[in-house]
Amino acid sequence: MTECADHVALVTGAGGGIGAACARRLAAAGATVVVTDVDEASAKNVAAELEQSGARALALPLDVTDPQAAVDAVAETVRTFGRLDLALNNAGISLPRQALDAVPVELWQRVVETNLSGVFYCMRAEIPAMLEAGGGSIVNMASVLGVVGFGELSPYVAAKHGVIGLTKTAAIEYASRGIRVNAVAPSFADTQMLTVGITPRKARAAALLAPMARLVTPDEVAEVTVFLLSARASAVTGSVHLIDCGYAAR
Ligand code: NAI
Known about the structure:
Blueprint: E1 8-11, H1 17-28, E2 32-37, H2 40-52, E3 57-61, H3 67-81, E4 86-89, H4 105-133, E5 136-141, H5 154-174, E6 179-186, H6 200-207, H7 218-229, E7 240-243
Parallel strand pairs: 1-2, 1-4, 2-3, 4-5, 5-6, 6-7
Bound molecules: 1,4-dihydronicotinamide adenine dinucleotide.
């Protein structure tokens, strides 16, 4: 698999879960991978694992709620590897389920700042570097909950719907300058996140509502994500790809 050879990719929230699976899949596709996470130790672990497998990798601390940190991470990427071609804006958080009127304002702000503004801050930093490199490809991590509603997760659902709007807008703005921007929308995946926002038991119950009646795996998300990042998806931009075992089809 060499579809991303000679490409430099930056992944946010890559210290675990879906982001780490995507970083591994990008490395397997030949990309140089900049593994970023607010948890620097986890980013270092993943980068070390990629290097051991023969890939070029770099770990960087990046809290996506800090616009300057996003600019700095992109600058460090370009300083180290000379360019930025691919970006996966994946970092996100969930929250305990509660009705809208019980959601503390600070929690709303934290979820929207991380899951939506974080994607904006990162794209705002990544796009100039991609224009400099002559083009690029971005995938933003939405969710099936960016396409359909889900009770008692209003900040998360609203932020993920916002990610899709942001993705479509960026795709329109940069298509003529060689940057494709797409979103992926997984349903419930068995990662650390499920222990926060929705218990594993409830997630499994929700997943059973999908025609395929199961959770999605991080590797399944990585497969579609890396396809979209690669030139194999050269005519695909502004689109949202459900990876949801059919959840939203009903
Ligand atoms: P996870 O909790 O396993 O991993 C999230 C990673 O993001 C962690 O390494 C964490 O340290 C990092 N992170 C958290 N806040 C950050 C910040 N401010 N800046 C940078 N990094 C930060 O979660 P998972 O499941 O891998 O989630 C990844 C993305 O996939 C998220 O955007 C999530 O909303 C989305 N997603 C997850 C689904 C699931 O069921 N697990 C389903 C659909 C979408």
